[in-house]
Structure formats: structure tokens, C-alpha cells
Amino acid sequence: MSVLEEQIPVAKYHGTGNDFIVVDADESVPDRPAFAKTHCSRESGVDGASVDVDGADTVDADDSGRRGADGVLFLALEGRYSPPRVVMTLVQPDGSVAAMCGNGARCAAAWAAERTGSDELMIDTPAGTRRATVDGGRVTIEMGVPSFHPRDVPLAGDEELIEADVEGLTVTAVNTGVPHAVAFVDDVDDVDLDAVAPAVRHADAFPQGANVTVASQSDDGTFRQRTFERGVEGETRSCGTGAVAVVAAAKRLGRVGGDDSVVVSPPGGDLEITVPDVGPATLAGPAAYEFETELDVTVRSR
User: What residues bind substrate, as annotated (predicted)?
Assistant: First the structure.
């Protein structure tokens, strides 16, 4: 058996700094976990700074200059449907598959809108089908109904986890497509997230692990957010499911009320969240194309 290196075309997108390599699912990637681990690496992964676009060098559109990515979106476009459908599979930097990613789904919608000309898309994810609308560089996506039920999070016990102590952090557990442990703090900048989050992320209370999100509420009712993501195993510049989890938990705890939208600001920018009393939550914000390039794929042949 021989091992060969082939190259496939990819694109890079980001939603408020949450960045993704986008691969058309028609391209053959025999080992998707290995591909994600290789090219998402922040030390040696995909590098936009060396990509030539229309004769000019470019850097990441979020102006961070970072290598790598927060995941790989494998997207299968079904353009014959109306509205067009996109089957989305997110493979994370550790090789695992995430059931849902809000910013990833918004990037998938932007990618599909560019190819179909449609401003309305249906994104099929392992967490369910989500409707997205595209308005210029702004993408809004339905996120499903947040659930605190122990079976849905999931939790090890049969009671909801509401403002409970988990590994020294007071958290509320909610599933917004993926599980989140949300902690409200006085100031997110005062939290050493890399120090406190791993113990919560791997706590016995969460048999499948959890994303760990901290949030602080401002006097104007907006929130600042930071999230340590399961599968990335570190903090990301933005987390859409985490932003929805912040508002869902805040509403459950009486910090916000009604159906009005709430601004949540991770480090990468502002997101607008609605968590209505009835119906799905929504996540809205910018999604931006960065560049196109080609990346190596390992192919084994006899």
C-alpha cells in the first residue's frame, strides 16, 4: 500500500472570528478526522497570509493573522430543493463531530448563498434542520428550542442543573444543539478560562462532556461572553451555540424576559440572540468569506 498526497480546493470563512475551513463534500477526503487535525492546527495549519487573491496577499478577514481553524465544515449542497439545502458535517480540531455549531451553520449558509443566489437556505445538521436567511454579510439562523432537560443536555443525574456547583464554578446546564455549562460572573475578563474550564468540561455531571461558557451582564442588558469549546479544547473567539445558551440561561434565571432580542458579545464581535417563549431561538450576526486555497489530503492506494 502506498501513501499519496493530493490537493483539494477549500475556502475559509468566519463568523465573528469563529473560523472554519469549508470543503465541498463532493471532494474526496478519506480520513476526515486526520484532515481536520492537520489543517486546523493553530501552530501548523492552514495559513491565509500566504494566499494570493486577485494578485494581492491577504490575511484572515478577522485581522487576527491566526493559522488553523476552529473546525472543518464538510458541506453537501442540494440545490434542486427550494429553498436550497445544505447537509453540514462539522469535524472539530480533535477529530470529533459536533452535532451543531451556530456560527458554522451561518458560514455554511453564506457559502451556499454565494453558489445558489438564494437568500434563504435549509441547513441539515445532526441536531436537526435549521432555516437560515442571508442579508448581505449578515446571516440569521434558527437554533432550535433550548432544553434544560437532563436527557437532552445530557446530564448524569435525573435533575436539571440550575445554578449548581460543578468543579468550583456555579453553572446552569442547557443544550442549544450541543451541551453548555453557563456561569454568570461579574467580569468575564477576570476568569482564567483555561484554568477553570477543563475540569467542568470533563466533569462527571456531563457524560458526553460540555462546552463551558462564562458571561457577564452589562447595565444595558447586553452580555459579554467567553467559551471554552469541547472538541476545540480551548477558548474560541466566538461561539454561537454558547451565545444562545447565555440568553437561554439568563431567561431561565430571570436575568432577561420577554421575546426581545439580546446582544451577546464574544471577543470576535456582536451576535444578536432571540429566545422566545414559544418556538426556536435565533442567532444573527456577520459571516465573512476570507480566502480560497488548496490543502493536502492523504490518500492510501494499493
Answer: 18, 92, 102-103, 211, 229-230, 240-241
In angstroms, the CA 150 to CA 158 distance is: 6
Q: Find the Cα–Cα–Cα–Cα dihedral 290, 122, 179, 289, rounded to 10°.
A: 0
Q: Where are the beta strands (DSSP E) in the chain?
A: 2-15, 18-24, 52-53, 56-57, 72-78, 85-91, 97-98, 120-125, 128-135, 138-142, 164-166, 169-175, 179-184, 211-217, 223-229, 234-236, 262-265, 271-274, 282-286, 288-301
Residues 127 and 222 in one domain: no
Residue 82 has pLDDT above 60, yes or no: yes
* Residue 222 assigned to a binding site: no
Total structural domains within the chain: 2
Among the options 21, 51, 100, 101, which is catalytic? Answer: 101
pLDDT at 4 over 80: no
- Given the residues 239, 245, 262, 281, select the one marked as catalytic: 239
239 an active-site residue? yes
Q: Give me the mean pLDDT over the 204-225 stretch.
A: 97
Q: Is 292 annotated as a binding residue?
A: no
- Residue 54: pLDDT over 90: no
CATH code at position 189: 3.10.310.10
Q: Is 103 annotated as a binding residue?
A: yes
Is 175 marked within a binding site? no
